[in-house]
Amino acid sequence: MAEAAAAVLARFSEQVLGLPLPVGIRLWDGSTAGPEDGPAFVLRDPDALRRLLWRPGELGLARAWVAGDLEVDGDLYELLKRISTLLWERDEPGSRTAALRRALSVLTTPASLRTVRRTLGLAGIGLPPAPPAEEVVRRRGPAHSLRRDKAAISHHYDVGNDFYALVLGPSLVYSCAYWQSDPSSGSGDTLERAQEAKLDLVCRKLALREGQRLLDVGCGWGSLAMHAAERYGVRVVGVTISDEQAALARERVAAAGLEHRVEIRVQDYRQIDDSPFDAISSIGMAEHVGGKRYRAYADILHQLLKPGGRLLNHQIARRPVRDEGKYRMDPFIDRYVFPDGELAPVGSTVSLLEEAGFEVRDVESLREHYALTLREWVANLEAHWDEAVELTSPGRARVWRLYMAASAVGFENNAMGVNQVLAVRTGDDGRSGMPLRRDFRGASPSVPA
């Protein structure tokens, strides 16, 4: 059975996808397909094959991985790079059935064909395996309503603060760091130093000064709010709709003795009613807003700012596509990682901010920085694997390892980018308050507590 299945996979790739298998395939009884050197998929049982053939492409592979039916032998990053061109999704049952029929045509005997069909649950016999428990099963209400957004955020962020501390390290910053050099080169740059450099870069771009009021939208565990208050002397309102994030952020603020300068709220950005603010930071939050609501998001932030106030919008972007309306996350990310998340090209983001009344003054790409950051997070997860599994579940830990490694490859391949967009709400007289020349490299001030 397994030998026949290996032949099906090879045939599927060559005849349906038009390419030879780029990685090795090893099945549960020792049968193999594809190249013998380099990384390989290890299918531990027939369920792995059923998942791959019922949903060929990213979602089927992810389900097999998360369920533990599929492992990787060799370099995970190299394997993901090799298969990136083969991942595809087709929702039309007819197309999938035709693809399977052509793949199964490699089998020459009726008996072997019946065996494979019976095992895979084809031709009306059986059903595809149930998705792993970590998958989002049901979504209620309109996309990006207050209720549905809170549920989506909870799915991703309320999985345990201790788990995130293992992955992110002491900085507890869940967005790309700002590196001086590649940490693998032995330069001495560490994740914690690079994250502190990113926090300070944000504060310098916003030109924060003592006594100002900063709104941090999507404040996470409070790292930027604390950095801005402690180093720049500003008063900060940090908002998140994750209950677990807010609880730990408040504990960290109290431990640092910053309660008089930092307020952490469980609040949606659409519910803020105590403007104006001198500056707004939105770091890794706008991906959750949704394309249809992005202009409203930009309008709200513009209204919350004082004239002359600055916005720093730090956001992941995807490459432009032919259909400008299709910016949903890939199937695996949408169902297991960031439900309802959407990525848009940086040009679309800049245009919508401008339409809302902002003047965009600077755009900086940090694409390579995010690839380095993700590799560090994966290394942290792998180094504390048993503890991470105990804190969450084997499936959840596998989700995070796959999504972070695949995202690192995406940034390295320029399939995705991440950009800091600095914008200003100009005054009625058109003045921006911006210097004639941009220079964000200056040292941060030291403000006494």
Automatic annotation (TrEMBL):
Domain Polyketide synthase-like methyltransferase: 163-409
Region (Disordered): 429-449
SUPFAM superfamilies: S-adenosyl-L-methionine-dependent methyltransferases
One of the protein's GO biological processes: methylation
Domain of life (superkingdom): Bacteria
The EC number(s) this enzyme carries: 2.1.1.-
A molecular function GO annotation: methyltransferase activity
Pfam families referenced in this protein's UniProt entry, alphabetically: CMAS (PF02353)
Extent of Basic and acidic residues compositional bias: 429-441
Protein family per UniProt: Belongs to the CFA/CMAS family.
Descriptive protein name: Class I SAM-dependent methyltransferase
